[in-house]
Amino acid sequence: MSTIKLQALLPRLDGIAKDVAKLKKMQQISLADFEEDEDKFGLAQHYLRQALEGVFHIGSHILSRLPGGRATEYKEIARKLGEHGIVPEDFANTTLVKMGGYRNRLTHFYAEITP
Q1: Contact by Cβ (8 Å): 49, 15
Q2: Cα–Cα nearest to 9, from 95, 86, 97, 75
Q3: How many whole angstroms separate alpha carbon 20 and alpha carbon 46?
Q4: What is the per-residue pLDDT across 7-29, written as a single tens digit (0 to 9) for each?
Q5: pTM, whole model, 2 decimals?
Q6: For the residues of 58-90, what is the DSSP string, one character each?
Q7: What is the pLDDT of residues 42-56, one digit of tens each?
Q8: Mean pLDDT (the chain, rounded)
Q9: How many helices (H) and strands (E) does the chain have?
Q10: Chain centre distance of CA 32
Q11: In order of start, what are the domains of the chain with their CATH numbers?
């Protein structure tokens, strides 16, 4: 088992925090303005996708250090984080799996996403 490399994770954590802060700031925009402004909608998608990718990159890094922990798909990363006790299993199988699915939707089915 190899060690977790903080130098690989800290920039990701910082990026997630920055993306979440930007998303929180966007909460101040009215729904009508958000729906009318494609740039704001596009930025929200971008920040959310980046934050989700950061979460799963960190999860993958942690799992890669555990025997049998390697995972290649986002939903699989979520489930294995629960199986290995990194996060509560219920959280992994509900919230994290949904987050992984939504990241895939943002990436592969972006044209179908609406405000």
Answers
A1: no
A2: 86
A3: 11
A4: 889 999 999 999 999 999 999 99
A5: 0.89
A6: HHHHHHTTSTT----SHHHHHHHHHHTTSS-HH
A7: 999 999 999 999 999
A8: 93
A9: 6, 0
A10: 26
A11: 6-112 (1.20.120)
